[in-house]
Design goal:
The chain has 2 domains: 234 residues, Jelly Rolls, CATH 2.60.120.1440; 74 residues, Phage tail protein beta-alpha-beta fold (3-Layer(bab) Sandwich). It contains 8 helices and 19 strands. Strand 13 and strand 14 form a beta hairpin. The longest helix is centred in the N-terminal third of the chain and has 18 residues.
Length: 322
C-alpha cells in the first residue's frame, strides 16, 4: 500500500503532506481508485459502535488497518460487505464508477453515504474536505470533483471542514445552497424538521435560497442563520456546544422540552407522541450522550419534568403523558 495513503487514513500524515498526496491522487488513476475504496471503508468503519474509551477505539482501528494491509483487495471487498450489513450503512458505488474515474470530467460516479439512527460518521472527500454526519443523514458526493467546482448534497445534519482551493465548494439542501471556498460550518436540514439552520465557525458563507428569485444572505464567523417559512434570520451563534454531536454529545441550551423531543425523534428514528404538550413548554439546558439511547435520555428528562412513558415496540412509538 502507498505509504502516504496509509498514513493519511491512520491520521498520521502531516498536514503539509496532505496537499502533495491529493495532487498525486489527481494525477494517478490507480491511486485515486485506492483512495476512494479506502475512503468508503473508513466511513463504514466509523459507523460501528463509537466508544469514548480511546484504547478501545484505537484497537478497533488497528484491526481495520491490519485487515487492509494483510488481505488481498478482492477478499477485502468481500469482507467489507459484512461490516456494511452490521452497520446498516448504504454506500452506493458501482464497478462502472471506478472505471469512469479514469476519465477526467465525464460520467463522474455519485456516491451516497447514509448514517442510520443513533449513529454518526466522518468521511474525507477527494479534495481533503472533512465531513461529519449526524444520525439519519445522507451525504451525496462524487468520487472525485470536476474541474469546474466541488458540489455535494446533504439531507439531515452535517459539519463541514472545507479544504481551501480555487474551486468553489457548494453544499446543497432541498431549500438552500451554501457556497464557500474554505470554511468550517454546520448544517441542520432534516426533511421532517421545521427549519434549516447553518452555524458558521470560520471563513465566510454565502447562502442562496432556491426559490423566491434566489434571495442571498452572507454569514460571518460566529453567526447562525435560521431559515423558517421562507424567511432567513441571522444572529450570533447561541449555543456553540450544539456542534458537540460530532463527538457523540447532544447539547441543548434554553430550549423547550417539546422542541428537544422533536429533535430526538429525528436522531433516533422513533415516533414520540406527546399527549399533553403544555407540560413540555418548560425550557431546559443540558447535554446527553448519543450512545445512551432514546429511552435513557427520556428517563433523564423525566427527572426534570415528571411524565409517564409508554413504549409500543412493535410500532416504534413512544407515548408521553402526565
Amino acid at each position: 500500500m502507498d505509504k502516504q495513503l496509509s498514513q493519511y487514513f491512520s491520521g498520521n500524515l502531516p498536514r503539509v503532506e496532505e496537499l502533495e498526496l491529493f495532487q498525486r491522487i489527481e494525477n494517478d488513476s490507480r491511486l485515486r481508485a485506492d483512495f476512494v475504496q479506502l475512503q468508503n471503508l473508513s466511513a463504514v468503519s466509523s459507523l460501528l459502535p463509537l466508544p469514548e474509551d480511546s484504547e478501545v477505539g484505537q484497537e478497533s482501528y488497528d484491526v481495520f488497518m491490519r485487515g487492509i494491509k494483510q488481505k488481498a483487495r478482492r477478499k477485502l471487498c468481500i469482507n467489507t460487505l459484512k461490516y456494511v450489513a452490521v452497520a446498516l450503512v448504504l454506500i452506493i458505488s458501482t464497478v462502472l464508477g471506478t472505471l469512469f474515474l479514469q476519465e477526467r470530467d465525464a460520467n463522474l460516479e455519485t456516491n451516497s453515504l447514509y448514517v442510520p439512527a443513533g449513529q454518526r460518521a466522518q468521511i474525507t472527500l477527494q479534495d481533503g474536505t472533512r465531513v461529519w454526519l449526524n444520525a439519519q443523514s445522507t451525504l451525496t458526493y462524487p468520487s472525485r470533483f470536476s474541474r469546474n467546482g466541488r458540489s455535494v448534497e446533504i439531507v439531515g445534519e452535517a459539519f463541514f471542514d472545507v479544504a481551501k482551493g480555487q474551486k468553489p465548494f457548494v453544499v446543497s439542501t432541498p431549500e438552500l445552497e451554501l457556497q464557500v471556498l474554505g470554511t468550517r460550518f454546520n448544517v441542520y436540514a432534516y426533511p421532517d424538521g421545521e427549519y434549516v439552520q447553518t452555524d458558521l465557525i470560520e471563513g465566510s458563507l454565502r447562502i442562496v435560497e432556491k426559490r423566491n428569485n434566489g434571495r442571498v444572505a452572507l454569514l460571518n464567523p460566529n453567526e447562525q442563520m435560521v431559515y423558517r417559512n421562507h424567511t432567513m434570520e441571522i444572529s450570533p451563534i447561541l449555543n456553540p456546544d450544539r456542534m458537540l454531536w460530532k463527538k457523540g454529545v447532544y447539547s441543548f441550551h434554553n430550549e423547550r422540552l417539546i422542541d428537544i423531543i422533536e429533535k430526538l425523534q429525528l436522531y433516533y428514528d422513533v415516533k414520540i407522541v406527546v399527549e399533553d404538550p403544555d407540560i413540555f413548554n418548560v425550557r431546559y439546558t443540558g447535554k446527553f450522550r448519543q450512545r445512551d439511547g432514546i429511552h435513557e435520555i427520556l428517563r433523564i428528562i423525566q427527572k426534570i419534568q415528571p411524565f409517564k412513558i409508554e413504549v409500543d415496540t412493535d410500532n416504534n412509538i413512544i407515548t408521553l403523558t402526565k
